[in-house]
Each structure stands twice: as structure tokens, then as C-alpha cells.
Amino acid sequence: MRKLCILAIFVCCIVGCSIGTVDASLSGSFGIATATSNDSAKPVARKTFDVEIVPREKWAELDIIMSKITPMGSNNPIKITVHHTAEERDNAKVSDAEHMRDIDRYHQKERGWACIGYHFVISPNGTIFQGRPVKYQGAHVSKHNPLNVGVALMGNFETSKPSNAQVASLKRLIKGLQLYFNIPKQNLYGHRDLGDTLCPGKELYKIIQQIKNSY
Fold first, then answer.
1. So what's the pLDDT on residue 192?
2. How confident is the model at residue 112 (pLDDT cuts 50, 70, 90)?
3. Cα distance between residue 70 and residue 86, in whole Å
4. Counting beta carbons within 10 angstroms of the beta carbon of residue 22, is it exposed (0 to 12), middle (13 to 18) or buried (19 or more)?
5. What is the spatial distance between Cα 202 and Cα 198, in angstroms, rounded to a whole number?
6. pTM for this structure?
7. Which sequence spans correspond to the domains of the chain?
């Protein structure tokens, strides 16, 4: 599977665009506020960073139910919450893309949501998948979804440890989101920080604390 290298974070719902490097502003990609210039003759500087992801249209089969979606809002996200998907699966039998479709299907058909609740999902080999576009509010932390980017790692990290590739991708993604949206490092959470749950599992939670305290 080829990946899309996105500058200015994960362009949402790109149509008819070949895989490659894409540059886009927040206003165009996410429908949330960004700096503008009153002088049309002067170019507007745009924050960028380089993170490889697989965009939603490359793996998803179901359309987002727009009648159930909520915009992220007029302000940039202010926090990041990390989860584990908590499933045990045979990686040799189920591809990462199929697992993404399973999560998307479950969240939409069983939970009644617009689509997958996470904004990003990281597979065991470190691939970062776009889930719900960032311009839309997620469905991953009850009562704490507004202005909150949801990141999930495939696996159950109450009983095992995330792979080195997952941890490396998580660090890149968190750093990029924090820099792009000016999210304070103290606003990085594990799901258990915001709700009564074991998520993201004790092993991943340790890593989140290390990331939070590393810079």
C-alpha cells in the first residue's frame, strides 16, 4: 500500500489527487480557523510538517454519515488523547486496511456514529491511517470530544506492549500535531485520564507519560 505524504497535516477527503506531496491550509483542509493576511499581494505563511499517512479514501468502504457529524469548531484543537483499540487479532490473517474497515463499520453500524471515532490510527508496523477527518469532532472520549484529537494504536496494551514502530510513529504524530496546532505538551492524555477506563492500557500509558515528559 502506498502512502500519502501530507504537508500541513493529513489533507482531508482529497478527491482525484495522485499520491504524493500535498500542501494545504487549515481552512481548506479542515474548516477551522487559521491566520490570514489583509494584503492579498503578500503570501500567507503556513505551518507545515511532514508525516506519512494513508488517507481515508484509500481504505474506507463506508461513507461518513454527514447528518451525524459535528464540526471540530471555529478554534484549533487544544488537546490530544491516545487510545488502544483493545482487540486481539491475527495480523497474518487480517490486513491493517481491513482492520480499519472493521473499526469503521463497528463504530458506524453498532455504535451509531458518523464513522470511525478516532482521527488517526497506528498499525503494528507503524503505518498511520487517517480515520475521521480532523475538521470533524471525534467520538473517542465521552464529554471530552470537542477540540480533542483522538489517536489510537491497534492492539491491547493492557496485556502487551506496542511495537517499536508504533511508538516511533506515535511520537512523530504527537510532535507534529502539537507544533501545528500549538497544543501544550501538558494537554496530552491517555483515555484513562479523562474517563473511567483502562484504555489505553498500562503499557501504552507508560509511554504516553514518557513522551509528555521528554520535551
1. 95
2. very high
3. 26
4. middle
5. 7
6. 0.80
7. 55-212
151 strand-pairing partners = 82, 120
For residue 40 the three cell numbers come to 492579498
**What's the CA gap between 122 and 16, in Å, rounded?**
25
Beta strands in 59-127 (DSSP E): 79-84, 120-122
Find the helix or strand (DSSP H, E) in which 104 lies.
helix 96-105
Cα separation, 77 vs 182, in Å, equals 9
Q: Among all chains, which residue has been given the C-alpha cell 500519502?
A: 4
- Half-sphere exposure of 129 toward its Cβ, with a 13 Å CA cutoff? 28
Q: Is 64:107 a contact under the CB 8 Å cutoff?
A: no
Q: CA angle, corner 158, sides to 152 and 164, nearest 5?
A: 60
β-pair type (120-122, 50-53): unpaired
- Give me 41's grid cell: 499581494
CATH architecture of 55-212: 3-Layer(aba) Sandwich (3.40)
Reported in sequence order, the residue ranges of 106-201 that DSSP labels E, i.e. its strands, are: 120-122, 128-130, 148-153, 188-190
The amino acid at 6? I
